[in-house]
TrEMBL record:
Gene3D superfamilies: Domain 2, N(10)-formyltetrahydrofolate synthetase, Formyltetrahydrofolate synthetase, domain 3, P-loop containing nucleotide triphosphate hydrolases. The keyword Magnesium does not apply. It is an enzyme of class 6 (ligase). Its EC number is 6.3.4.3. Keywords: ATP-binding, Ligase, Nucleotide-binding, One-carbon metabolism. It catalyses: (6S)-5,6,7,8-tetrahydrofolate + formate + ATP = (6R)-10-formyltetrahydrofolate + ADP + phosphate. Belongs to the formate--tetrahydrofolate ligase family. NCBIfam families: PRK13505.1 (NF010030). It comes from Roseovarius halotolerans. Signal peptide: none annotated. The keyword Ligase applies. ATP binds at T67, P68, A69, G70, E71, G72, K73, T74. This is Formate--tetrahydrofolate ligase.
Length: 558
């Protein structure tokens, strides 16, 4: 049996004018800044006007560690939001914007799938409203101003060897990871070694997603540490005098974007930090605004719960004063079989034993999320090859963990396929059973925070950090940054730093390769193992299949 592709389904959507979507949340058209007919930004004046409203219930959607079999976290986020509206609840969803890197690389877009999608799918997965371009430009303006300051006399005494601000590009390009700039003679400046990160790893991206208004944005941008002097004194963006111009470039990008699901329900799509190299959550502005307008807000955190959910709890909720009422962990029978040792080519064959063998990965995530004091429901994202026996094996396992698993068919049926999940999630959220608390206190030393995550979330035996890294962390503590949370940059495919170790491994170590202080965003990035902050393209990138057809429509996006 053949099925329509995501882009075919999205193209057939019966979209409503964005003004009608805004009216569902009480946003008058005067407060929407349209980008065409089907997407708009929400004005800061309107956001300010609803701050006195009571907050709705916040529901987080996370997942098991991703596998090539697919999990469908964003698809489930959209399906649950549609399901809540279907059962009569006033609900909105909040997801991240798509990076061009994975769109043209391997992972694909970030708009959901099947009949649980956000539209316009093509625009969302490409240039959208230009937010990522604004972030890239603001980031690189600072880079240009740093080198320009050095060229024109270096009044601040920057040590060219200690410029820590790299450039960014919203594309997977391994050739730019380590480069030398300013070659070609005196007129081109002082040569130095540097590199590029992908835009979603930019501290500017993190700042935009954590800032509460334009004044907070400018303050955070000013706090960015870009370099050090020969006496190792920090030089900030404010010292370079770039914070004002960067804020101007980001003025419109700070305003949340409003679009719609296939079922014409409101969706906030704003910000896009990756969870394997950044904090993996959509913007605080979008989430807090949605909470003032809807009774239930469904949001997601990137990759598995060991990354996205951990950072959602320890960074976003801590910084924004948020507390989730319930968490949905997405799993698939196919992924359980792959965690149980089944090859991708054999996932269509029934194998209940492999499902049972792979379930401990799911169990680990359930246990971890519960450790934050929040009730957990498992959504089994249904694939047509799943058998009743395999689904029941997952349900039985989850019941043994003290939670419940609900079969969801939103990919094929839209909101009809998530009625049961929506009903149960609403019941849990309304019961106010959550007793949320972050995993560690602000006052805990930085290395101990890293150790806490490694041991309690990853189940590692130890953290491997050489003396240089330990000294750097201590220096930051002495400088007043010890109360910051830590943002772990680690492979998304495993609880370990080895992407090939699936399941729920124990007895491993977490090696730290590098630490970076994001003083503007307000966290310390801890780079573990071989994780790259500038990904590369696969041997057959998705870009090879993306084209315009004879009618001028885009083909190949997924």
């Amino acid at each position: 049996m053949s099925y329509k592709s995501d882009i075919e389904i999205a193209r057939e959507a019966n979209k409503k004018p964005i003004q009608e979507i805004g009216e569902k949340l009480g946003i008058h058209s005067d407060h929407l800044l349209p980008y065409g007919h089907d997407k708009a930004k929400i004005s800061q004046d309107f956001i300010n006007s609803v701050q006195g409203n009571e907050n709705g219930k916040l529901i987080l959607v996370t997942a098991i560690n991703p596998t090539p079999a697919g999990e469908g976290k964003t698809t489930t986020t959209v399906g649950l939001g549609d399901g809540l509206n279907r059962i009569g609840k006033k609900a909105a969803i909040c997801i991240r914007e798509a990076s061009l890197g994975p769109c043209f690389g391997m992972k694909g877009g970030a708009a959901g799938g099947g009949y649980a999608q956000v539209v316009p799918m093509e625009e969302m997965n490409l240039h959208f409203t230009g937010d990522f371009h604004a972030i890239t430009t603001a980031h690189n303006l600072l880079s240009a101003m740093i080198d320009n300051h050095i060229y024109w006399g270096n009044e601040l005494g920057i040590d060219e060897r200690r410029v820590v601000w790299r450039r960014v590009l919203d594309m997977n390009d391994r050739a730019l990871r380590d480069i030398v700039t300013s070659l070609g003679g005196v007129s081109n400046g002082f040569p130095r070694q540097t590199g590029f990160d992908i835009t979603v790893a930019s501290e500017v991206m993190a700042i935009l997603c954590l800032a509460t208004d334009l004044a907070d944005l400018e303050r955070r941008l000013g706090n960015i540490i870009v370099a050090y002097t020969r006496k190792r004194e920090p030089i900030t963006c404010r010292d370079i005098k770039a914070d004002g111009a960067m804020t101007v470039l980001l003025k419109d990008a700070m305003q949340p974007n409003l679009v719609q699901t296939l079922e014409n329900n409101p969706a906030f799509v704003h910000g896009g930090p990756f969870a394997n190299i950044a904090h993996g959550c959509n913007s605080v502005m979008a989430t807090t605004t949605a909470l003032k307008l809807a009774d239930y807000v469904v949001t997601e955190a990137g990759f598995g719960a060991d990354l996205g959910a951990e950072k959602f709890m320890n960074i976003k909720c801590r910084k924004a004063g948020l507390a989730p009422s319930a968490v949905v962990v997405v799993a698939t029978v196919r992924a359980m079989k792959m965690n149980g040792g089944v090859a991708k080519a054999d996932l269509g064959d029934e194998n209940v034993d492999a499902v049972k063998k792979g379930c401990p990965n799911l169990g680990r995530h359930i246990e971890n999320v519960k450790s934050f004091g929040v009730p957990v429901v498992v959504a089994i994202n249904h694939f047509v090859t799943d058998t009743d026996a395999e689904v029941q094996a997952v349900k039985d396992y989850v019941a043994e963990q003290g939670s419940e698993a609900i079969l969801c068919q939103h990919w094929a049926k839209g909101s009809e396929g998530t009625e049961e999940l929506a009903t149960r999630v609403a019941q849990i959220a309304d019961a106010d059973q959550a007793n949320f608390a972050p995993l560690y206190a602000d006052s805990m030393p930085l290395l101990q925070k890293i150790d806490t995550i490694a041991k309690r979330i990853y189940r590692a035996d130890e953290v491997l950090a050489d003396q240089k890294i330990r000294n750097q962390l201590k220096e930051w503590e002495d400088a007043g940054y010890g109360d910051l949370p830590v943002c772990m940059a680690k492979t998304q495919y495993s609880f370990t730093t080895d992407p090939n170790r699936r399941g729920a491994p124990v007895g491993h170590s977490v090696p730290i390769r590098e630490v970076r202080l994001s003083a503007g965003a307000g966290f310390v990035v801890v780079i573990c193992g071989e994780i790259m902050t500038m990904p590369g393209l696969p041997s057959k990138p998705a870009a090879e299949m993306i084209k315009l057809n004879a009618d001028g429509d885009i083909e190949g996006l997924f």
